[in-house]
Amino acid sequence: MKLTVLCYIVNNDKTLMIHRTKKENDVHHGKWNGLGGKMEKNESPEEAIKREVFEESGLKIENPTLKGIITYPETNNETETIVFVFTATEFTGDLIECNEGDLEWINTKDITKLNLWKGDLLFLPLLKDKGIFTAKITYDKENVTESVIKKY
User: Fold this and answer.
1) Which of 14, 22, 43, 61 has the most CB atoms lying inside 10 A of its own CB?
2) What is the Cα–Cα distance from 85 to 102, expressed in whole angstroms?
3) For the residues 128-145, what does the mean pLDDT come to?
4) Is 147 strand, coil or helix?
5) How many other C-beta atoms are found inside a 10 Å radius of the C-beta of residue 60?
6) Within the chain, how many helices (H) and strands (E) appear?
7) Which tens digit of pLDDT belongs to each residue from 97-121?
């Protein structure tokens, strides 16, 4: 099982996204994602998301808000993955060059027009809601074959 973190940084009406275009053999190649990655040994989800965002963007986020926990069962030769999903609105620093893709501030209302994983369309609207959600999203290649989402 792989533990990962994901963050959508919001500034006014824009959200920082990464267009995954630079990394070899990237399962996300060509897709747009929030920032994040794997948790390291002995890290809390909050520690991991602060580190990942800084490494990928140069931004130091403050007070990330946990919005949900997503389970992606083992499919397509990918290990079962648990993702802690955060949002952040407080940050300092300047964007740096990212070795995984191109960073871009996207109008939040236009994010669903990007080349996203189909499962992202299921949980992205929940990021603006109060409370948190849990989800299980199963894929067969790029198609969602099962999704269960519960809001709390």
Assistant:
1) 61
2) 21
3) 93
4) strand
5) 13
6) 2, 11
7) 999 999 999 999 999 999 999 999 9
The 10 Å CB-count burial string (b at 16+, else e) for 69-88 is: ebebeebeeeeebebbbbbb
- In tens, the pLDDT along 22-61 reads 888 878 889 999 999 999 999 999 999 999 999 999 999 9
Cα(39)–Cα(5) distance, integer angstroms = 7
Q: Which two tokens stand for residue 52?
A: 């990942």
Q: What is the pTM of this model?
A: 0.94
Nearest to residue 149, comparing CAs of 114, 128, 115, 120?
Answer: 120
What is the 8-class DSSP label of residue 129?
A: S
Whether the CB-CB separation of 91 and 62 falls below 8 Å is answered with yes
Q: Using the structure block, give the residue that is written with the tokens 């620093």.
A: 93
Confidence of residue 76 (pLDDT cuts 50, 70, 90): low
- What gap in Å lies between CA 140 and CA 7, rounded to an integer? 24
When the pLDDT of each residue in the chain is averaged and rounded to a whole number, the result is 94
List, as one string, the DSSP characters of 66-120: EEEEEEE-SBTTBPPEEEEEEEE-EEES-----SSEEEEEEEGGGGGGS---TTH
